[in-house]
Design a protein that fits this description.
single chain, mainly alpha, 2 domains, 7 helices
């Protein structure tokens, strides 16, 4: 992936409603300082810790927190979606943040320089 595409994908990551605040900060720091190896390493480390695995996604979908966040009907749909992903063999969450994050991680050598 080209540096330009990494920048675009990182902007998509930051814009994703499902992207957590600490990751947004690290991603923006990398956009602001793309040649700083320490900043790049912090970004990748944060990203690696924030990608949601499918089992964690299913657990969250079945939690009271999901009901609180999405409402009862929304949580039921979320559980069905998470279970469907797992049944299809997905390894990770498919939200916009995780999807963009995985693309970046596939090209982390380019980020790290």
């Amino acid at each position: 992936m080209s540096k330009e595409n990494l920048i675009t994908t990182t902007k998509e990551l930051i814009a994703a409603p499902s992207c957590c605040a600490p990751l947004k900060v690290k991603a923006q720091a990398w956009l602001d300082n793309p040649d700083d190896k320490a900043v790049a390493k912090e970004f990748i480390t944060e990203l690696e810790g924030d990608i949601t695995g499918i089992d964690d996604l299913v657990a969250f979908a079945n939690s009271p927190l999901a009901v609180k966040k999405f409402g009862e009907d929304g949580a039921k749909k979320f559980v069905a979606h998470a279970n469907e992903l797992k049944a299809k063999g997905a390894k990770y969450c498919d939200c916009p943040a995780c999807t963009a994050g995985l693309k970046i991680l596939e090209n982390k050598k380019a980020v790290l320089g």
